[in-house]
Amino acid sequence: MASNRKIMVLPGDGIGTEIMAANMKIIDWLAKHRSIDFDMQEGLVGGAAYDAHGTPLTDETLADSIASDAVLFGAVGGPAYDDLAFELKPERGLLALRKEMDLFANLRPAIVFPSLVEASTLKPDVVSGLDIMILRELCGGSYFAEPRGIDDLADGTVMHSGILWRQVMTALHAAEGEGVELGHMYADNCAMQLVRNPKQFDVIVTDNLFGDLLSDCAAMLTGSLGMLPSASLGAPDPETGLPKAMYEPVHGSAPDIAGKGIANPLAQFMSFAMLLRYSFDQGAEADLLEAAVDKALQSTRTGDIMTPGCTETGTDGMTAAVLDAMDRLAR
Ligand code: IPM
Ligand code: MG
Question: Which residues line ligand 1 (CB under 6 A)?
């Protein structure tokens, strides 16, 4: 019987292809041990699509992505594409997917696993137990705003979007935020507070550009940029109730370590766990995968999160450790 869970797989560039190959082993495990099978289709995006088709996202790949239940994304970009025209750069493929699929809500959970407290560059008591959800607006702001370009504003005004942001959040809070404490912060202060006392935040709701910066900052609290997953969601479909969705690690294509087999696949795995949870309502499997990541981390590490006493390994070794933990936890 054909699966009704359609996943569009877009590995992209750099370490994207390596961590996606690792993710496929998790998917194989679920097929074998949980009889969950997905209808998978793979496509090119970013530099890989440019090399093959002269554009970072073909109309066909976009249409297939829109028609899927979820897009599983790796990473795009690399120095080979630095001199391309703006519209041809690998990142444009990613931004076009976000915009065309109207994935306006980007969820970036920054969670410190107990075993990784020592891997953070911050003091253990500052980060232990940290659990922040960054909610980044993903289809507007400086990334997409019109008119574009460099212009003199006749009246010299700036930052009006910040005022709108406050008004909307305050009204939303009044209407739906009972029991939730709402505060406003400038983004520069928020960046400072994130490294001073990150546990003061439960959720940070922020615009596209600031969300990009603040989520990288929050990622380092968790030990490594290699640990942050994300879900980009649109409005729920009126028939199925499910949102259009794309899942991707926050870290990017890491050209400096691409092809070496040492990339940390965990943010990719946890992005896939978010896919299971948000797109297919498979919370039990998502929990299992996240618990396996936690368990694997207790003894096995990639270089970016290595701490003394653990065994250092590469992408394959880390993946094997997670699969082994899944075996053991599933017993
Ligand atoms: C991210 C990335 C992207 C962004 C780039 C690759 C366009 O940094 O997802 O955080 O700026 O949104
Ligand atoms: Mg970013």
Answer: 91, 94-95, 212, 250, 252
Output the CA 250–ligand 2 centroid distance in Å.
6
Give pTM, 2 decimals. Answer: 0.93
Residue of the CA atom closest to atom 8 of ligand 1? 212
Enter the tokens of residue 103. Answer: 């994935």
Residue 119, pLDDT score: 87
Q: Which atom of ligand 1 is nearest to 215's Cα?
A: 10
Contact 289, 326 (CB under 8 A): yes
Alpha helices in the chain (DSSP H): 15-34, 47-53, 59-67, 90-100, 124-127, 160-176, 187-196, 208-221, 266-280, 283-297, 315-330
Q: How would you classify residue 9: left for phi > 0, otherwise alpha for psi between -120 and 50, otherwise beta?
A: beta
Cβ atoms of 142 and 208 within 8 Å: the answer is yes
- Measured CA to CA, the distance from residue 254 to residue 233 in angstroms comes to 25
Which atom of ligand 1 sits closest to the CA of residue 211?
10
pLDDT band (50, 70, 90) for residue 155:
low
Q: Which of 210, 212, 247 to mutate to test the pocket of ligand 1 (most atoms within 8 A of CB)?
A: 212
Structure confidence at residue 242 as a pLDDT band (50, 70, 90): confident
Determine which residue's CA is closest to atom 11 belonging to ligand 1. Answer: 212
**Which residue among 15, 91, 213 is best mutated to probe the pocket of ligand 1, counting the most ligand atoms within 8 A of its Cβ?**
91
Q: What angle do CA 17, 304, 120 make, to 5 degrees?
A: 135
Burial group, residue 217, by CB count within 10 angstroms (0-12, 13-18, 19+):
middle
Q: Which residues are registered as beta bridge partners of 12?
A: 75
Length reported for the chain: 331
Give the C-alpha separation, 102 to 28, whole Å. Answer: 30
Assess contact for 112 and 222: CB atoms under 8 A.
Answer: yes
